[in-house]
TrEMBL record:
GO molecular function list: ATP binding; glutamate 5-kinase activity; RNA binding
Name of the protein described by the UniProt record: Glutamate 5-kinase
Record-linked InterPro entries: AceGlu_kinase-like_sf, Asp/Glu/Uridylate_kinase, G5K_ProB, Glu/AcGlu_kinase, Glu_5kinase, Glu_5kinase/COase_Synthase, Glutamate_5-kinase_CS, PUA
Compartments in which it is found: Cytoplasm
Any one Gene Ontology cellular component term annotated for this protein: cytosol
EC numbers on record: 2.7.2.11
Functional summary from the UniProt entry: Catalyzes the transfer of a phosphate group to glutamate to form L-glutamate 5-phosphate.
Start and end residues of each PUA domain: 280-363
Length: 371
């Protein structure tokens, strides 16, 4: 018998609805409810991250395409979310499995105290055998502070609860070397042992998803990156066959599996990397990139060439190489206006330039996470 596993399952709009009509795919939802309830009865801890609020809201209101304005999307999501939970509650209650609705916004994980609070709530729900059903709180989320897609949200939830598994259920059976809809000869990928392999295999992820979904494969790969860094084994598999989740847990090589990192990034650093919302960007010269990426050093002012955005001391920033590629994130010891004056300068000059003595480094290595 397998030890207790913590399992996060994300299902996308494309699997919850029928592609032709946009109506609910009832048999999929029923099988999903059966599978998750069965996993629960075996003692596993299960969280479902479900999309569908916008898609189901549209179907309920007879809209034939996704709304374009933010306000209309939020209104439609408010209609669809209630409908979605009603359907889940019917199925899960039939199976005597209690569920809970958890609606999160980006700021719920961006602030340390709220992040810890969300963690405690999930633990309490899992302890009493409830399956939390999570979605973004679309109705109140503001554009600049959105997760944007539920693939990312599910990876953040999996990282928060330190899950063993993250299943991304979608409308293709696995990841291919290119979008199989446009390239029928694309090669299936069964196992990704490290994320650099995707670049080596030259995997093409095409443009954002289906008519009702949002992310496409791009966001699933981004989610796999976040989750595997947290030590979570991640699987992309077909939503039409939720029973496959159990088969995969038992070792069947279905879907595309992403192996977890053997030495996961610690919880605080994961929060710095993916919980905190970066408010600026620092561009570094090659020497500084090498120092932080290869030698594990703190970031010094001397290596910073350009600063973008306005931020305060203790805010999170993105750290980029000279080509603009993000290599790390971290919490800065100086505001953007202070940094404009000390960038490119030696640490011993900081006190003279600013007129007061501050930290010798701009980001201490304990507050720096490689991406
Ligand atoms: N390399 C690829 N391998 C597999 N599918 C891909 C790839 N690139 C793009 N896709 C597309 O991504 C789609 C799944 O994303 P999406 O529609 O957003 O699903 P969901 O609603 O489940 O999140 C597939 O239908 C497929 O057409
Ligand atoms: N919060 C949105 C989810 C949007 C989303 O990520 O959709 P999908 O690409 O189908 O997983 C909704 O419920 O409609």
């Amino acid at each position: 018998m397998l030890r207790t596993q913590t399992i996060v399952v994300k299902i996308g709009t494309s699997s919850l609805t029928q592609s032709q009509t946009g109506l609910l795919a009832l048999s999929t939802i029923a099988t999903l409810a059966e599978t998750l309830s069965h996993l629960r009865r075996q003692g596993h801890r299960v969280i479902l991250v479900s999309s569908g609020a916008v898609g189901i809201g549209c179907a309920r209101l007879g809209l034939t395409e996704r709304p374009r304005t933010m306000a209309m999307k939020q209104a439609v999501a408010a209609v669809g979310q209630g409908r979605l939970m009603r359907v889940y509650d019917d199925f899960f209650t039939t199976l005597q499995q209690p569920i809970a609705q958890v609606l999160l916004t980006r700021s719920d994980v961006g602030e340390r105290s709220r992040y810890v609070n969300a963690y405690n709530t999930f633990q309490a729900l899992l302890e009493i055998g409830v399956i939390p059903i999570v979605n973004e709180n679309d109705t109140v989320a503001v554009q600049e502070l959105k997760f944007g897609d539920n693939d990312t949200l599910s990876a953040l939830v999996a990282s928060l609860v330190e899950a063993d598994w993250l299943f991304l259920l979608t409308d293709v059976d696995r990841l291919y070397s290119a979008d199989p809809r446009s390239f029928p000869d694309a090669q299936p990928i069964a196992l990704v042992t490290h994320m650099e392999q995707l670049a080596q295999l030259q995997v093409q992820v095409g443009s954002p998803g289906s008519q009702w979904g949002t992310g496409g494969m791009v966001t699933k790969i981004a989610a796999a990156r976040i989750a595997t860094a947290a030590g979570v084994r991640t699987v992309i598999t077909e939503g039409r066959f939720p029973h496959n989740i159990e088969k995969i847990i038992q070792g069947e090589p279905l879907g595309t599996q992403f192996a977890p990192q053997l030495q996961p990034t610690n919880a605080r650093k994961r929060w710095i990397a993916y919980g905190l919302i970066p408010t600026g960007k620092l561009y570094l010269d090659d020497g500084a990139v090498k120092a932080i990426c290869q030698q594990g050093k703190s970031l010094l002012a001397a290596g910073i060439t350009t600063i973008e955005g306005e931020f305060d001391s203790q805010d999170a920033v993105q750290i980029c190489d000279r080509f603009g590629k993000e290599v790390a994130r971290g919490i800065v010891n100086y505001s953007s206006s202070e940094l404009q004056n000390i960038r490119g300068r030696h640490s011993r000059e900081i006190a003279t330039i600013l007129g007061y003595a501050g930290a010798a480094n701009i980001i201490h290595r304990d507050n720096l996470v490689l991406i």
